Amino acid sequence: AEQELIAARDEALAAARARSSLLAFMSHEMRTPLNGVLASLDLLRGTSLDARQRGHVDTATRSGEILLHLIADALDVTRLQADVLMLREAPFDLGGLLEEVASISRPAAQARGNAVLLGLDLPALNVIGDRDRLRQILINLVGNAIKFTRDGTIRLSAAATQIDDDEARFDIAVEDSGIGIPPDQIERIFEEFVTIDAPGDPVTRGTGLGLAIARRIATLMGGSLTAESTPGSGSRFLLRVSMTTVPRPPAAAPATPDGGEPQPRRGARVLVVEDNPTNRLVIGEILALFGCRVSAAEDGADGVELARAERFDLILMDVSMPRLDGPGATRAIRADPAALSREVPIIGLTAHAMPDTEAGLRAAGMQGCLYKPVRVADLRRLLVSLLGHAGEEDPPVPAGRRPDAPEAADPGDAGGTLEDETIAELAEMLGAEALEARLAAFAAELDGLEAALAAARAAGDLAGTGRIAHRTAGSAAVFGARALRTALNALEAACAAGEAGAVDAGLGALAPLVAECRAAVSELGADLRAQD
Ligand code: ADP
């Protein structure tokens, strides 16, 4: 009997090894030609096609993208199984991470009628851990909660359950009020490739790998990931992990270019591919502040041209753009042997966090992504990690820059419509004069917004309506106009889904938000002029 057991175990181990190496082979060997296929489809879409041909190209592209997602997930699983995925630990603020996850998940949640609540009960300490991987787990859990909940609540919470000298135990939970999971399936969902059919709600089908990956990462962190659920009333996923705690640095790390953090190496050449002019300008300004030489393209197709002709050190690429989107442009750059920037890191810029967003972008050939609105601290971290940091002799902040900045854009003044922190950061970064100019441009955009939306809607052009909503949502994000941004994101989602009723409801609800935001913009503009 013992011999039989040993033989059975060896056989199972051999099977597991064979499966891992098959996955590894498939992931690597399939990705390259598939990217070639998708890049060619992107180029084909740019030629003159009739409607039927365009439909075929779109179907082929969508199928290819699904396959790429699957491969990206399979690669993560393989890495985890083969123990080659290493955690990269550094001190970070756990509460800040949860706030970030909640805030980037809100637009997607809102589009399905869900509210995202956040509850934190944490000590004023930093923890040492792998922030990116923890974020991957949380984005996955919150993304699932959004997918499987309609018109409900998603609650993200974190509490320290035990605090010792330099170690604490944390319970981090994601709860939803969605469809729930049958008791006999609750352990199965953590297995690879398991998805459960949700009756009556044909939401986007995933690969069934998200939770398997999340649990493996949790285990790698020495923690656990479990679920409990009541079908029909909701689910609760609990990540339980212990981490070393360290005191917070005294200057609570302001998100300014001289926050005492390592500064990026100067002189890097960065290409920014972004269709929203305000975003393009703001990101360009931040990069310039860090001593980067910035080139800009207004859509994916122009981005591909510039990346072909010049070798950059980094490309920042918006995800949804007219003509050619970010993943399409990335594939075209990666597939073109003549492109001078073929091997350069490409980082996606996106406003929506869904569990497979990052995996999808990586599958297209990007190295990662930043969530909009892009903050100074995010870009600094990215530049330092990709390009290294500057030497002592190299002052990071150009002299004469900061005196321009108003002391502080009085938080109360904008009536809370424009997020104080965002405005203060913009003021610091751009200086009062440039901020005034950007505010004026935003004001003009707001003034024309409703007429433009109404015209597109009256012409029955839902795609056009969605594009206008998308563009202004981008500008609203830059100025921290959260409510307006969320409403525009929801409108954009309704347009994309072709739900005419939801589009009209979204348009109807816009007027007071636009008016409120417009008033806040005027008020802030007046304050800035008064400070001049
Ligand atoms: P997928 O990529 O399909 O979402 P996951 O591994 O993340 O894969 O999830 C596996 C399955 O678990 C999902 O297909 C779904 O059936 C179920 N599931 C996960 N999270 C939830 C949730 N919050 N509510 C209901 N079902 C869920």
Overview of the structural elements:
The model is unreliable at 251-259 and 392-415 (pLDDT under 50). It is built from 16 helices and twelve strands. Helix 14 (482-497) packs antiparallel against helix 15. 52% of the residues lie in helices and 15% in strands. A hairpin with a 3-residue loop joins strand 4 (153-163) and strand 5. It binds adenosine-5'-diphosphate. Adenosine-5'-diphosphate (ADP) binds at residues 140, 144-145, 148, 176, 178-181, 189, 194-196, 206-212, 235.
Quick rundown:
By secondary structure, this protein is α/β, with parallel strands linked by helices. It has 16 helices and twelve strands. Strands 1, 2, 3, 4, 5, 6 and 7 form a seven-stranded mixed β-sheet that branches. It has a five-stranded parallel β-sheet with strand order 9-8-10-11-12, sandwiched between helices.
What attributes characterize this protein structure?
532 residues, alpha/beta, seven-stranded mixed β-sheet, five-stranded parallel β-sheet, 16 helices, 12 strands, 52% helix, 15% strand, globular, binds adenosine-5'-diphosphate
